[in-house]
Known about the structure:
Layout lengths: L19 H16 L5 E5 L3 E2 L8 E9 H6 L2 H4 L1 E6 L5 E5 L21 E9 H4 L8 E9 L2 E2 L3 E5 L36 E6 L2 E4 L6 E9 L4 E2 L5 E2 L2 E2 L2 E10 L7 E8 L9 E9 L11 E9 L2 E12 H4 L3
Parallel strand pairs: 2-9, 11-20
Antiparallel strand pairs: 1-3, 3-6, 4-5, 4-7, 7-8, 7-9, 10-12, 12-18, 13-16, 14-15, 16-17, 16-19, 19-20
Amino acid sequence: MNPTDPRAPGDPSDEGFFDPAWLGAAGDALAQRCLGEDRSQLLLYAPRAVDTAAHDTLPVLGLWCRSHREDLATRWTDLAALVAVRLDDGAAYAGRVFVWKQSRPSPRDTTLDPGEGFAADAFSCDLRARLAGLPWEGGVWAVTALVGAYASPVAHTSLAGSPPARMRRPAPPVGDGPFPTYLRTAASPPVPAEVGVLLDVARVMVLAPGVHCVLGASFRLPASYAVTTPAGTTVHDLPCAFAAPVTLVATRDDALEPFAVTVVAPCFDATPGATEITGCFTVDLFAFDGFDARPGAVRLWAFAGSLVQGPWAMQLVDEDELAPR
């Protein structure tokens, strides 16, 4: 299941990821190359294979090139995040690139004229240290960097060892309330005509007691992204032999930590030998522990296997802000 990870001429090879001097030199070379391209871009690289017996870290190397105006708007080191999805079973982890003592991003003076041009910075970190709980066992990981509305191309890395079982139960479990549901609802967007994930969520969400933040999702994915379910699994009283893990990630400019939750959605129509799987789910984002429901702008991303889609923008507004004055 280790996908190809093509790299452009001049991109870092696997030779020195575990050598800090090599990482520094490779980052400097990337920065110089990207500055010459005069465009904003976010890049990420990881070793294609890691011997877990010989190493206890998983270094990644990234590059963020942005315009001076983008640089003035936000402090990118406050916002840089990493998301890793294990292709074997859809397990996902998210965390920030840099660890700071403060709990909120630093304020910026946006009244200055930044002028034209671009700035570029390389960064490196140990993915295992940044993503708490990342299993140090066999498996293939798809890793993505996020900064604001930018997502890097996916970097793949394979950890030596036996991969995990491709079996998971649908989750969250269906309860007595309306959410989650894995049947089509009025909130469900159409199933994409091509491989992808579509989300439908309110652009403006008014925060009020008892309100639900309803997110509908539909997907069409390669059958290789499917996991099996335990024998005899039923959801909504329907037999379910296959499911698709889809991870929702929420980022905001006024929060340092990304929020991530994986929905393991039943694929009721999936059959052995199929090339694609489809399905849908509707959830209440506010029902998930850890979702930041403060007023402010939220970016929502969808991750499934090596697929990254988004962001979808949502503004959370306190109902008091809408009251007549």
